[in-house]
């Protein structure tokens, strides 16, 4: 019952974030994107704390029932490699990787 309650809270939080970010699908100048896959047992409080600790902004959830999130961060305040390592060491995150598609696009515009 507790797990169901936590999942419901997480879903509600994600829905709120998704609705507020619906029109913010583009990356701000200087921001990079990262794809984060969370553990299934993550609560909404843990999610909010983790993302605010690493200065991540959720752009969108990748899939309706997915635990994968596309987030943006400012690489001038948070080093990409350090962020990926710290996220992978977290008990909340299964996988974290840069969004290569955006990185490739940025490099081709130079």
State the shape.
Answer: globular
**In CATH's first tier, which class applies?**
Alpha Beta
In round numbers, the mean pLDDT is: 72
Number of strands: 4
Would you give the CATH topology? Alpha-Beta Plaits
Structural class: alpha+beta
Q: Which regions have little confidence, pLDDT < 50, spanning 5+ residues?
A: 18-26, 102-110
Structure description:
The chain contains four helices and four strands; from the N terminus they run H-E-H-E-E-H-E-H. It starts with a helix and ends with a helix. It has 110 residues and is an alpha+beta fold. It has a four-stranded antiparallel beta sheet. The radius of gyration is 14 Å and the shape is globular. The protein has a single domain (2-108), classed as Alpha-Beta Plaits (2-Layer Sandwich). Residues 1-23 form the signal peptide. Keywords: Signal.
Structure at a glance:
The longest helix has 19 residues, at 2-20. 44% of the residues lie in helices and 22% in strands. It has a single domain (2-108), classed as Peptidase S8 propeptide/proteinase inhibitor I9 (Alpha-Beta Plaits).
What are the defining features of this structure?
single chain, 110 residues, alpha+beta, Alpha-Beta Plaits, four-stranded antiparallel β-sheet, 4 helices, 4 strands, 44% helix, globular, disordered C terminus, signal
């Amino acid at each position: 019952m507790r797990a169901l309650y936590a999942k419901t809270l997480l879903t509600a939080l994600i829905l709120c974030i998704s609705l507020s970010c619906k029109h913010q699908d583009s990356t701000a100048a200087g921001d990079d994107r990262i794809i984060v896959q969370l553990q299934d047992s993550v609560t909404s409080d843990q999610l909010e704390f983790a993302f605010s600790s690493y200065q991540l902004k959720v752009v969108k959830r990748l899939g309706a029932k997915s635990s994968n999130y596309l987030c943006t961060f400012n690489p001038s305040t948070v080093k990409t490699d350090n962020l990926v390592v710290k996220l992978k060491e977290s008990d909340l995150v299964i996988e974290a990787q840069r969004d290569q598609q955006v990185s490739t696009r940025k490099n081709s515009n130079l």
